[in-house]
Amino acid sequence: MPKELKLILRETPIGREATPWLDPQREKFAQVARECKEAFKDSKLKGAAKIQAMNAWMSERLKG
Question: Which residues contact 36 (CB under 8 A, 6 or more apart)?
């Protein structure tokens, strides 16, 4: 008899639940993350140097 692999998919929430004070922060972070992706799209940096530069860039944008 052939063995069958059965997948059971269930919906599981990822991350924290929605809260009135957290949603604006999520939206702002998502917007800044999209801008960061565009800003570093053609970057010549690689590896850890790129990650550090992106972190600094995100940090500056999120503070203001």
Answer: 54, 57, 58, 61
